[in-house]
Design goal:
The structure holds 3 protein chains of 3 kinds. By secondary structure, chain B is α/β, with parallel strands linked by helices. Chain B has helices spanning about 5-30, 140-150, and strands at about 40-45, 60, 65-75, 80-85, 100-105, 110-115, 130, 130-135. Chain B folds into 2 domains: about 1-30; about 40-145, no CATH class. Chain C starts with a helix and ends with a helix. The chains are: A alpha/beta, B alpha/beta, C mainly alpha. The complex binds adenosine-5'-diphosphate (ADP) and magnesium ion.
Chain lengths: ~280, ~150, ~260
């Protein structure tokens, strides 16, 4: 396993909007990240992949400044997130949107009010203009007609799209997507995949998609990081990744049940265990 | 944030109901007259002993509450209690020789000041002193006197 | 033995830490109060949730408590031939103690548990995190209006409890037991003091509203973000808030009615 790029001929990578160096993050006894380096280029769609529980959500929270690294730095737009005081952090957060795993819509507000929420909190725009902006964002995700619905009335895919509309309400420069594809039916999945790619291109967004869905992520990503056990095990373009010689990456990409990552949780000898019951 | 009108109406009704309840507690249940204390006029009276008299104890005349005790002090030169009475401005015709006594309502009840009008032609004014006073009857003292007189016999 | 001491130490440490967290939490929430003034609509919504929705149970309980007070008081006073003091007994019990205390206990059960569940679920479904990522401070935007709403609603609810209770007592005393109506009210007016009794009852209920809402909000905010964690937190809210109300009531009563 190497953390070296797979091919030396990098695509002309623009400047990094997020720069992570020597990141170490520990939760209790558990070391979640140990020496992670990452560069997330501006205006591109970067996928960060890894099995469940590797700390993908944690990574997004570190980027958003909700968690602080134990060592190393997370720089966003040239600012060290951990060193910002709360005012500056909030100013930085207005420049990023985040799509939570389950949408995290505010349950007591309608679809319209959810999308209007960041606008009303952060701008003094007249209600008419807010209405226009909200309808534009809802239209972009195809849910202009659902504006009156409450979050409880939405399907999972619709909720995620509303959350997406909300995440881009303030026209952020970067959007973080936490597992956008998980638990979607094939049609919603197709819609989301197209939406992510087209929004990134149309708005010039810096998108970070965290996922363990191999096909979808690789089909839309410009650049991919694969993390496991607290380290980056591979990174490069999707094409390069398919050619990876790492058996771990191959197991992950092809979804084999057994391989370098064993199917079984560490346990004592099976036969001995069964017999240990005693007769 | 748009909020439905019915929420606002309900909250309005709730606040009105709460205020009405407070108003009822002030007017119907308690003695709101405590409010008008400020507008009354003040009289002073010295007592040798005020017993259990307290600030805001009632001041009555012929059993009717005409004011309240507003201040209780101690004159360290003559060793007497100085009680300030706040009298309702409606009762501005108390004669100069009105007397003040401290009574107890019932055997063990709270103490209050009873005024008794005299016959003088001039009236008491703000800041005047009531000359004739009768101190509180202290039960322990009475019992003591009773026991002493019994023993003497 | 060592084991026991160790656990005792750990528990003490845990409790101390929670107390510290609870006060820091309060500090941050109070920091959000100034920003509520221009957006009072947020508070109105919470007065609705805490106050209006608790109104029914408060009014019904108040009515029955007042009626029982009249019945019990009558049975005691009739032996002393002092039934005209029934109004005083009912009014003083309600205004000084039962209105604020029972009102707050019902408030903890009705509004407090709902607040904990609401905040806990918002945490579990990452709504609070989402707000933070939208550069909105949930302590200011979500928690502060709820705290202020509770502080406003509680004294109104307690006053309604007392007023309805006195009406209930009146119905039983005058309507059922034949106490003289004039004596019922006039004795009450002579003995109940606006400042000593009514105002101290109001002060008590403001304090209780503050404490119950604070505990409820903190329990929700501090809950383990799972459905089990939220349900435990809800139970804790009712238990801790009720104990806090009863304990504080003792202290406040001693302070306000102790001497003078
Ligand atoms: N609130 C928490 N308390 C304790 N451990 C947690 C908590 N949240 C996450 N973890 C642990 O941190 C690790 C990374 O979690 P997460 O970032 O959510 O992983 P992913 O998003 O990749 O599935 C997991 O092993 C999980 O057990
Ligand atoms: Mg996750």
């Amino acid at each position: 396993m190497s953390a070296e790029p797979l091919s030396t001929e990098q695509p002309s990578v623009p400047e990094a909007w997020v720069r992570i160096r020597g990141l170490r993050y520990v939760r209790g006894e558990q070391v979640i990240f140990d020496g992670v380096d990452m560069d997330i280029p501006r205006g591109r769609l970067t996928a960060i992949m890894g099995p469940s529980g590797t700390g993908k959500t944690t990574l997004l929270r570190l980027i958003g400044g909700q968690l602080r690294a134990d060592a190393g730095t997370v720089e966003v737009a040239g600012q060290n997130v951990a060193s910002l005081h709360s005012k500056a952090l909030y100013r930085l957060r207005k420049r990023m949107g985040m799509l939570f795993q389950n949408g995290a819509l505010l349950t007591d507000l309608s679809v319209f009010d959810n999308v209007a929420f960041p606008l009303r909190e952060h701008t003094r725009l007249p209600e008419r203009m807010i209405r226009d902006l909200v309808l534009m964002k809802l239209h972009a995700v195809g849910l202009r007609g659902a504006r009156e619905l409450m979050p409880a009335q939405l399907s999972g895919g619709m909720a995620r799209r509303v959350a997406l509309a909300r995440a881009i309400a303030l026209d952020p420069e970067m959007v973080l997507f936490d597992e956008p594809f998980t638990g979607q039916d094939p049609i919603s999945l197709g819609v989301l995949v197209t939406l992510l790619r087209s929004l990134t291109d149309a708005l010039g967004l810096t998108s970070v998609v965290v996922s363990h869905d191999v096909q979808e992520s690789l089909s839309i990503a410009d650049y991919v990081y694969v993390i496991s056990a607290g380290r980056v095990v591979e990174h490069g373009t999707p094409q390069a990744l398919w050619q990876s010689t790492s058996p771990w990456v191959q197991q992950f990409l092809q979804g084999q049940s057994d391989g370098p990552v064993p199917f079984h949780y560490p346990a004592s000898d099976y036969r001995a265990d069964l017999l240990a019951d005693g007769l | 944030m748009m909020q439905s009108r019915s929420v606002q109406i309900w909250v309005g009704l709730f606040v009105i109901a709460g205020m009405a309840a407070l108003l009822m507690l002030s007017i119907k249940v308690s003695n709101i007259r405590a409010f008008s204390n400020e507008q009354g006029y003040e009289l002073n009276a010295n007592f040798e002993n005020i017993g259990g008299l307290k600030v805001r104890s009632p001041v009555t005349m012929a059993g009717v509450v005409v004011g309240r005790v507003s201040h209780i002090g101690f004159d360290s030169e003559i060793y007497e209690a100085v009680v300030t009475l706040n009298i309702d401005p409606r009762y501005d015709n108390l004669p100069e020789d009105t007397s003040a006594s401290i009574f107890t309502s019932g055997l063990l009840g709270e103490q209050y000041i009873g005024l008794e009008a005299g016959g003088a032609e001039n009236y008491l004014h703000d800041g005047d002193r009531i000359q004739l006073t009768q101190s509180a009857i202290v039960l322990e003292k009475l019992i003591g006197q009773f026991l002493v007189s019994q023993a003497d016999e | 033995m060592m084991d026991f001491l160790q656990r005792l130490g750990a528990t003490t440490l845990g409790v101390t830490e929670r107390i510290g967290r609870g006060h820091l939490f309060l500090l941050y929430v109070l920091g959000g109060f100034p920003s509520l003034l221009p957006r009072f609509g947020l508070v109105i919504k919470q007065i609705y949730a805490s106050g209006v929705l608790s109104l029914l149970i408060i009014a019904v309980s108040g009515l029955f408590v007042g009626m029982v007070l009249a019945l019990q008081g009558y049975n005691t006073l009739v032996d002393f031939g002092a039934t005209e003091s029934l109004g005083v007994v009912v009014a003083l019990s309600l205004v000084r103690e039962l209105g604020p205390v029972m009102g707050a206990l019902l408030f903890a059960g009705r509004a407090g548990s709902a607040l904990t569940a609401e905040i806990g679920l918002m945490k579990a479904t990452e709504q609070l995190s989402a707000m933070e990522m939208m550069a909105v401070n949930p302590l200011h935007r979500v928690v502060a209006p709820r705290l202020l709403g509770g502080i406003i609603a509680m004294p109104l609810l307690a006053a309604i409890f007392s007023a309805v209770g006195i009406v209930g007592g009146y119905l039983v005393a005058v309507g059922l037991l034949g106490v003289d109506e004039g004596a019922f009210w006039s004795q009450m007016q002579a003995k109940v003091d606006l400042f000593d009794d009514v105002a101290s009852g109001v002060i008590k209920s403001v304090v209780f509203g503050f404490v119950v809402t604070w505990i409820a909000l903190f329990e929700g905010y501090d809950a383990v973000p799972t459905s089990e964690g939220v349900s435990r937190a809800t139970t804790r809210t009712v238990v801790h808030a009720s104990l806090a109300v009863l304990g504080l009531n003792f202290i406040l009563t001693a302070l306000m009615f102790g001497d003078d």
